[in-house]
């Protein structure tokens, strides 16, 4: 059965036609953008509102519509309208209005009355028709929970009636007892929709995607919930998660046209939960391959952090870097690098360039010349300086026989690079300075000839304090460390709040103070400017983020990111 407009068919490029047929794209973009706003607002609602936002289930029910081979499935497990109290400047209302403005759909009248407590988005397949010769066309599925089936069915009829009035040729079919409405010919902005039972409304970019979703729900062994990997991953989800994402990592790589030469982890699950100080995103990577933990689990913060100034914008702490190259984290890093950038070379040129330049400037290999002899605690920090483009740095290592040999090795590298090793005394503390002699010219009034002098530039200093060796980029930072009391990062209330949200025991922390490090990160990741614009409500409230890994179970690598937000 076909539905067609009796009025003249509009030009395919006309605004009316594009507005109607782009509904699916706008709705998907809206749901994704909504998740970004949720990041910036859930915690505010959680703190200020007496309404309980904790989800009754951490697992999306719509996973039953999704194939176990699906690359990505993302779910919001709460009704977005329950976030209305978070609006300081009407962010949520503005988003709904702007995203649906071109679709002639009124959210308040057409969607709000029936929308339930789940929105699930999935890329169901890499290529709908599985024909590589005509290009790759992924399948997209959106499942919206409904608490008023009659209202949601009316919405589907209304939506497709408007598309028909706009000139689209539509088709209605019955598939396994379910009514499907869709464009008669697949196009770039095609839309298909159906009401499934009493609980869900489905939309897709092709009727084949809807048919497969119906097959999945009627043959449970085909859907995501029957996947052993998904079942194992779902067991790791904390109770009350408000958003969940599941990724089939090899398929995600194929989605980007990549074939991974090295693959350790098969899948990943991510959850988002509330915390009085912000949001905790926890993730678990699953593998059937043997892995080695990068370091032992620690129940207390690294003591080396006592020597990191509170002004640090970025701090990394943990123990044992000697086996980092063979660890689970290293294998994950290689796989993510290949997935995101295609190759190590691309990653180096686009993201890891500062490390490559550091190695080149100093003539060292980080893994061989530094990491190999660090078997105890360590802490590394970058300290932004207003008067300098490049930040200052601090590196603290727990003392051992290997560390002493490593320090001597670094002194030798400094000497081979033309630097002088000069012993000095600073605050009654014996230190070693890596210095460089350079000539400097000053103007004089005699014969207009400049006066030449020799200047000593400090390229780095190190000293032993207690059970730690401290390296810094300049004397001023070392002086601050030696003279300032109770002014370390570990005494910083913001840092204490951030690490308190991370489960223990863990393998240490990566702490990023967003306000202090924003410019540094943006220089290395220019795309961040675009992300900030899209997620402005979130980034405006972001104070810091803290990463950690905290699992050594066989076949699992578990970690989390805590987003500390301003109230």
Q: Largest beta sheet, briefly?
A: 21 strands, antiparallel
Radius of gyration: 29 Å
> How many angstroms does the end-to-end distance come to?
55 Å
Task: Give the domain tally.
Answer: 2
Runs in which pLDDT lies below 50 for 5 or more consecutive residues are 1-34, 36-54
3D shape: elongated
- Helix amount: 25-40%
**Beta-strand share of residues:** 25-35%
Taking all residues together, what is the mean pLDDT? Answer: 79
- Compute the number of helices: 18
Brief synopsis:
Helix content is 32%, strand content 28%.
Topology of this structure?
Layout: E1 2-3, H1 15-21, H2 23-48, E2 72-76, H3 91-100, H4 107-111, E3 115-125, E4 139-146, H5 149-165, E5 170-175, E6 178-183, E7 192-196, E8 200-204, H6 207-218, H7 228-234, E9 243-248, H8 249-255, E10 267-275, E11 278-286, E12 314-319, H9 328-341, H10 344-350, H11 353-362, H12 366-370, E13 377-383, E14 392-398, H13 401-416, E15 420-426, E16 429-442, E17 451-465, E18 468-472, H14 475-483, H15 493-500, E19 509-513, H16 514-524, H17 528-534, H18 536-541, E20 542-549, E21 556-565
Antiparallel strand pairs: 1-5, 2-3, 2-9, 3-4, 4-8, 5-6, 6-7, 7-8, 9-10, 10-11, 11-21, 12-13, 12-19, 13-14, 14-18, 15-16, 16-17, 17-18, 19-20, 20-21
């Amino acid at each position: 059965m076909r539905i067609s407009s009796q009025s003249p068919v509009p030009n395919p490029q006309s605004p009316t036609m594009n507005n109607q047929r782009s509904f699916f794209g706008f709705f998907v973009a809206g749901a994704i953008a909504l998740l970004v706003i949720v990041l910036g607002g859930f915690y505010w609602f959680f703190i200020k509102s007496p309404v309980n936002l904790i989800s009754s289930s951490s697992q999306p029910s719509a996973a039953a519509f999704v194939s176990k081979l699906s690359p990505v499935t993302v779910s919001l497990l709460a009704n977005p309208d329950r976030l209305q109290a978070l609006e300081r400047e009407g962010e949520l209302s503005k988003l709904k209005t702007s995203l649906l403005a071109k679709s002639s759909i009124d959210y308040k009248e057409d969607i709000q009355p029936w929308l339930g407590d789940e929105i699930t988005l999935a890329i169901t397949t890499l290529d709908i028709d599985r024909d590589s010769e005509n290009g790759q066309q992924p399948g997209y599925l959106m499942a919206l929970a409904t608490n008023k089936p009659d209202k949601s069915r009316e919405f589907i009829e209304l939506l497709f009636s408007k598309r028909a009035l706009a000139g689209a040729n539509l088709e209605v079919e019955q598939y396994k007892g379910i009514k499907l409405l869709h464009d008669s010919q697949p196009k770039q902005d095609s839309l298909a929709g159906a009401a499934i039972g009493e609980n869900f409304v489905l939309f897709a970019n092709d009727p084949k995607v809807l048919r497969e979703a119906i097959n999945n729900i009627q043959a449970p062994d085909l859907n995501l919930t029957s996947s052993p990997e998904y079942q194992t991953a779902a067991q790791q989800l904390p109770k009350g998660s408000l958003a969940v994402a599941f990724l089939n990592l090899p398929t995600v790589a194929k989605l980007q046209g990549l074939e991974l030469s090295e693959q350790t982890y098969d899948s990943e699950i991510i959850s988002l939960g509330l915390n009085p100080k912000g949001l905790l995103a926890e993730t678990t990577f699953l593998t059937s391959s043997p892995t080695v933990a990068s370091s032992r689990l620690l129940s207390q913060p690294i003591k080396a952090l006592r020597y990191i100034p509170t002004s640090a914008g970025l701090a990394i702490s943990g123990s044992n870097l000697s086996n980092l190259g063979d660890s689970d984290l290293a294998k994950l890093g290689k796989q993510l690098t290949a997935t995101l950038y295609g190759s190590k070379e691309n990653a180096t040129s686009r993201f890891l360039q500062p490390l490559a330049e550091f190695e080149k400037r100093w003539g060292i290999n980080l893994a061989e010349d530094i990491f190999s002899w660090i078997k105890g605690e360590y802490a590394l920090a970058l300290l932004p300086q207003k008067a300098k483009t490049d930040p200052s740095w601090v590196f603290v290592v727990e003392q051992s026989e290997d560390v002493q040999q490593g320090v001597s090795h670094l002194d030798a590298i400094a000497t081979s690079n033309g630097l002088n090793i000069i012993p000095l005394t600073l605050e009654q503390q014996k230190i070693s300075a890596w210095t460089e002699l350079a000539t400097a010219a000053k103007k004089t009034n005699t014969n207009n000839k400049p006066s030449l002098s020799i200047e000593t530039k400090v390229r780095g200093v190190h000293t032993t304090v207690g059970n730690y060796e401290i390296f810094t980029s300049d004397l001023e930072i070392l002086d601050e460390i030696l003279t300032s009391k109770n002014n370390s990062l570990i005494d910083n209330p913001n840092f204490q709040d951030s690490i308190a949200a991370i489960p223990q025991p863990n393998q240490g922390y990566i702490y990023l103070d967003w306000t202090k490090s924003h410019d540094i990160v943006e220089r290395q990741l220019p795309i961040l400017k675009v992300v900030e614009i899209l997620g402005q409500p979130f980034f405006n409230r972001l104070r810091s983020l803290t990463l950690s890994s905290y699992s050594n179970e066989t076949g699992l690598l578990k970690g989390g990111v805590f987003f500390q937000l301003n109230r």
